[in-house]
Description:
This is SWIB complex BAF60b domain-containing protein. By secondary structure, the chain is mostly helical.
Amino acid sequence: MLSDQELAQYVESLVQHTAAQGGTGISADAVVRQLGAQLGVDLSPKAQLIRSVLVALLGPAAAPAPDPTGSRKDPFDPATAAAAGGPRAETPPQQMHFSTAAASSAPAPSPAVPHFFPQQHQHQMQYFLSAPQQYQHQQQQQRAGASPSPFDIPASYRYGHQPLPQADQAQLQRLVQLQHQQQQLAAAARVAAAAAPTPGESPRAPEPPPAPAPAASKKNSSASVGAKRKGGPGGLNKVCGVSPELQAIVGEPAMARTEIVKQLWAYIRRNNLQDPNNKRKIICNDELRLVFETDSTDMFQMNKLLSKHIRPLESKNDSKPEAKKLKPQGDEPISSVETDVNQLPLMVSDALATFFGTGEREMVHSEAVKRVWDHIKSNDLEDPENPTVILCDSKLKQLFGRESLTAHGVSELLSDHLYTQSTNI
Length: 425
């Protein structure tokens, strides 16, 4: 916000440039409009201040000091008229008007202040006279020998609406920009000073706690070190193991849960698996059906179904004994992800071997689930009214002993027909 002193400097600069360029006149309203446009602010509330500055710059000189005797002078006395610059012709009533033209050929004389006003009030009355009357009163004072105002300029520059020349407008604009930059630098300096701690507010070193017993301090220090060592990425950013079924989609054996969801949605969009009528519904293809064990799901159930295929990775200390036990005769170790039970070949029960009809006695769990779903899809065993329900045919009845089952129960029921090699069938 401009201060009154800065605004007065801008007004004075505007008056000087207008006079130097040979303008025809200037007025308070024109100054308000032109400076407001140049500075980019509304100067209407400052109109009275601008008018006062213009009066101080262009107005008449200060009124003479009052007579110390306190006597009143008759304005019609010949001696008074002679001191004011000669005899004054009487003005007819029809000629006493306030002319706004500065260059009129015969300006009307300024009406004298009535004699019944004290002499000390005449200076205040000058502010209530119109602009032409102030100029005429100044001419009378000059003729009487009064010194003119040091800011006086020809009358042609007083009362007009002459805009600033383009060069002066550019210079004034540069002044405004310079002022704005200075204000911004001052504001930044104040913010930096407020942010910096003062000497009285400088942080003190924390007072050392009372020294506990040596045993207690050693115990606390070891506990704090253990807590620090336990840190690391956790929660949704913790790297987890991925099941073989889900690994076929995301392409990595270990991944953070957030990255798994991101890759899964990329796979869904890439294969156009969203229902066109309901984007929140996912239509499963063969790969997703192995993961979710259903023909369709939605974005809310998908996170719950993913929990079956996301497993925490074993720590290094826990994985070393397992790696030693499962280490083959060769020198190449087996990672903890590769030792997942779903990746190991399992023994197939007689009923499941009869169902497949291939004579295989060992099979990975995911492969067994895939073959059962291939049988369901090829024989159209899904309930048309509810795709999550499987209507068992004779082979499935013989295998599972049920008339129907849910899509989520296929993998669980197959677990009863797959055994590890150490288990006796």
